[in-house]
Amino acid sequence: MTAFELLNTLPAAIDPQATAGLDRVLQFNISQPAYVSIRDGACEVTTGTDEAADLTLTLSDDDLVSLLTGKLDGMTAAMSGRLKLKGDLALAQQLNRYFDFRRLT
User: pLDDT of 39-86, one tens digit each?
Assistant: First the structure.
């Protein structure tokens, strides 16, 4: 599964209760940039770039797949420079609460 295909499965992994009332945008800068809009318990994946995203994650396709499937720790990736974060870092720390990434594998 490609990184973009995996991103497109995020709506199945969202926790509606944890994201109720939330309105945030995550930008994923990978080979095929995409952004994920989280709004009131649901999310939508869109091809392209949202310049006003709350959090931007820049990483390789392989690292995104590894990150979302639990094979790469986010903190380790960020500390080693494999993952670059820009914006709301507190949001980055909450992603495991908002999504059940086990549903993606």
Answer: 999 999 999 999 999 999 999 999 999 999 999 999 999 999 999 999
61-68 contact pairs (CB < 8 A, 24+): 61/2, 61/3, 61/4, 61/30, 61/31, 62/3, 64/3, 64/6, 64/7, 64/28, 64/30, 65/1, 65/2, 65/3, 65/6, 68/6, 68/7, 68/101, 68/104
Distance CA 95, CA 31 (A): 21
Neighbours of 87 (CB within 10 A): 17
Q: What is the pTM of this model?
A: 0.94
